[in-house]
Design a protein that fits this description.
- By secondary structure, this protein is of the alpha/beta class.
- The protein has one domain: Rossmann fold.
- It is 44% helix and 22% strand.
- It has nine helices and seven strands, in the order ααααβαβαββαβααββ.
- A seven-stranded mixed beta sheet has the order 3-2-1-4-5-7-6.
- Helix 1 packs across helix 2.
- The relative contact order is 0.14.
Length: 245
């Protein structure tokens, strides 16, 4: 019975764009509130949990950013890497649905007299097609269910100018020996479960982003892996791709 009700609901939503928009708006409102609440601890928690490797995976991207580049950070959160890019002289734009997250970015920029454009909006509503030299989706695509992630990747890839770069720092799929693989799965699922309990992410598989790039008009150039405490199993990755179409 429950299955029939959900199936009917899904059918209704897909056949009625207004209902779907309403549902997306409701979901975003919930997500926005939950990320607002997480703004004060998010970065510190990520640092401890990842033995600072989340930061390293984002700092790695600076190698591909030149002073003056137009760089967009999607789901920028507290923006540690956006501040690094601004220090480098890039023209930085940060988008996030959580104003509390952007307030943290603003505070950090202010402390160093740096500036960036901060926009509180759903990334889907950002219409600067082919505008950016670099678009970075860091630990962002991971907050979506598979189908929504594919749509978000496809849309946000169009924000990069042809020949520009799309970069993704995020969790990595398991690799290495069986123990390393088990650690990766256990450690990353534990975090996903905790985030799910806080209403920050849905439960989903660990995405193989490079697999989805060709359909988004992207070509993988380089993948750098980051290990737990630098020497343990691979947990994070920094993917650099080019927009080819
Ligand atoms: C897991 S956090 C990652 C934050 C940051 N990029 C980092 O690496 O630390 C995901 C961020 O995406 C934001 N977000 C979620 N859905 C969004 C959407 N549809 N549009 C824009 N931002 C969104 C959340 O508010 C949150 O700050």
């Amino acid at each position: 019975m429950n299955f029939l009700v959900s199936a009917r609901r899904a059918e209704l939503l897909s056949s009625n764009p207004k209902l779907r928009d309403l549902q997306v708006a409701k979901q975003n409102e919930r997500l926005e509130k939950n990320y607002d609440r997480a703004a004060w601890f998010y970065e510190r928690a990520a640092k401890v949990y990842s033995t600072n490797q989340i930061r390293s995976s984002k700092r790695f991207q600076l190698k591909y950013i030149e002073p003056g580049d137009k760089v967009l950070y999607l789901g920028a959160g507290t923006g540690e890497e956006a501040v690094m890019a601004a220090r480098l002289g890039a023209e930085v734009t940060c988008i996030d649905i959580s104003q509390a997250m952007l307030d943290v970015v603003q505070r950090k920029l202010g402390q160093e007299s740096l500036s960036a454009e901060l926009i509180c909006q759903d990334a889907f509503d950002h219409q600067r097609i082919a505008h950016y030299d670099v678009v970075a989706s860091n630990y962002f695509l991971n907050v979506f269910r598979r189908q929504d992630m594919i749509k978000m990747l496809g849309f946000t890839a169009t924000l990069v100018r042809p020949g520009g770069r799309y970069m993704v720092a995020d969790v990595a799929r398991s690799q290495g020996n069986i123990l390393a693989q088990a650690f990766n799965i256990f450690y990353l699922k534990l975090a996903m479960f905790a985030f799910w309990m806080l209403g920050l992410v849905p439960l989903h598989e660990n995405y193989d982003y490079c697999k989805f790039f060709p359909d988004a008009g992207l070509e993988t150039e380089h993948v750098e892996f980051f290990r737990y405490a630098k020497i343990g199993p691979v947990l994070f990755q920094s993917i650099v791709a080019r927009r080819v179409t």
